[in-house]
Design goal:
The protein is mostly helical and 482 residues long. The protein contains 23 helices and no strands. Helix 8 runs parallel beside helix 10 and helix 21 runs antiparallel to helix 22. It starts with a helix and ends with a helix.
Length: 482
Amino acid sequence: MKKKSYENILLFYIFICGIIFSTSYEHYFTYFITLINITFISYSFLYLNKTKNIITLLSLSFIGIDYHLFSLFFLYFPLIFTHKFNSINFSILLLLLYSSIVFLSNSIIFNYSIINFVMWLITFFTPLILFMYFSKFNYNAVDIKNIINFFIKLISLQIFLLFIQFLCISDFKPGDWAMGSLHDANKVTFYLIILLVFKIFEYFITDKLNIKKIIFLFLCSIMIIFCDGKSVILSFLIGLVFYSLIMLKSNIFKNKLLIKILIVMFVFMIINLDFFVNNYFEFFYGTSMSIKSFIENFSSLENFSNKYLFYNRIFLDMFNENKLIWIFGTGPGTLGSRASNFLSYDTIYTQSKNIVEIFILPKTSYWVKIYLADLWTEDIVNNVKWHSAVLTYPFSGINSLKAEIGLVGIVFYIGIIFLIIQKLFNNFFFEKELLIKKIILTLTLVFITIPILLLFDNYQEQPQIMIPLFLISSFILKKKIN
């Protein structure tokens, strides 16, 4: 099959999935789409070259069902030991070894099930395993540019799907209706910001901007607003400040005045944030909202500020109860991670059955019962619609990493992210292709933003986010590594 024909089939399939999610989300659709996705994965793994394999995995990461992505761990984990390791891959292996020791040590005391650890490996380590595997190969500029262009097409397709979804609603307000093919407004926001940044960097590098690009940037910005991913937008804005400060000290951009202007604009927005927030709520919801009242809304017990409470328990209460556990963690898959939540369905409230409940008995740890059970109940879930879900539910990446693999583990993980940032930044100066330069700059900003995003949600266990990031980084870095 020709490359373009296969890519068009994948894009059409993603489009159909987006239409299905716009009209219905019945369980039989979930199982049917998962079966098709596994067929794609099997076909690409067995018969396609590495470039088409990456394109397939990128495509299947843009579908709002992720069960099929967990099968990738079992396919690729046995293959990572066939080549020498670079510094990033070695760091990932050290994190895996450390996590295994922590789990086994805690299992002796708390009698954990090995299923908790396996589930955690599947949900957390799959993107890292894919990074290790695909960084073994050599990639030429043509292959890299083809993959990047396809990735941009996948994101651009979300804009078209958002238009269709907009036509299907009658309420002209930002909200969860803007789900694209990912069936998640926050994830769509994440990728639209990547697209916006990618296009803006073209201007920074070349100093060229025309009316078509301006219209596209405006359209992309409007769609980001309608996705209503406030925590994602805030994270990227904070990440942009650190990123801009780094860029000011480098010789990457021709016009440093533009970066200084952006920083000044950001400071201006922070100073006038109360004005912007109030007008946002006034325009779309017909109500006033100040920053003070917004913060108070999520820092009082009456409003179910469970994320605040869980942070307090993980960072303060756990320190007072068991300092050794505070440093090294309760063990992977035992408190706050997606794996732990899947297996604690007898204790943590779930609105509908997940696929784990069909095949596996509950494996609720001691720590979930003590630290988390009362923070996610039916009453709280029913009241989430009156508040920001991201700021209301207790789960977050920082909480789960700190709880399960401790202070040492979270330093390991953030260290891997910053090692990737350093390698990407170094590669920029040796790269001659404009398209690859733009994606390097974009990825650098995204990885700077990841630790900030982890304050709000378990992004480290969301394969639709992490798999594309680590996949693209693997072949970009391989072009210069070794």
